[in-house]
Amino acid sequence: MPKCVLLDACIVIEAHKLGIWENIIEKAEITVSSIVAHDESLFYSIQESKIPESIDLKSLIDEGKIKEISCLYLAF
C-alpha cells in the first residue's frame, strides 16, 4: 500500500464520479496541493458534473483525513 499519494484535481473528481473516493482515502495517505484543495476542486458540483456529492477537500483537510501541501514560488 502506498504511504503517500499526491493527487491532481482530475483524479479527485474522477474518484468522486466513480464512487470510490472514500475507499481511496481509507487505503492511502492522500495529499493534494493547495490549488487543488482551494480552487480547482471547487469548480465541480453535484448539479454541473453529475458527481454524487460535492467535493469538499477543505473539510477533509481540517479533519485530518487528507493532507495539503503548498509550494512557494520565488521570483528572481
Task: Write up this protein.
Strands 1-2-3 form a 3-stranded parallel beta sheet. It has 76 residues and is an alpha/beta fold. It has 5 helices and 3 strands; from the N terminus they run βααβαααβ. It has helices spanning 9-18, 21-27, 34-38, 46-49, 57-62, and strands spanning 4-7, 29-33, 67-69. The model has no long low-confidence stretch (mean pLDDT 80). The chain has one domain (4-69).
**Count of extended strands:** 3
Q: Which H/E pattern describes the elements? A: EHHEHHHE
The pLDDT mean sits at 80
Secondary-structure content class? alpha/beta
* Uncertain stretches of 5 or more adjacent residues: none
Largest pleated sheet: 3 strands, parallel
Whole-number tally of structural domains:
1
Principal-axes shape call: globular
User: How much beta, percentage-wise?
Assistant: 15-25%
Radius of gyration: 13 Å
Compile the SSE list and pairings.
Blueprint (H helix, E strand, L loop, with lengths): L3 E4 L1 H10 L2 H7 L1 E5 H5 L7 H4 L7 H6 L4 E3 L7
Parallel strand pairs: 1-2, 2-3
Short description:
The protein is α/β, with parallel strands linked by helices and 76 residues long. It has helices spanning 9-18, 21-27, 34-38, 46-49, 57-62; strands at 4-7, 29-33, 67-69.
Keywords:
3-stranded parallel sheet, 3 strands, globular
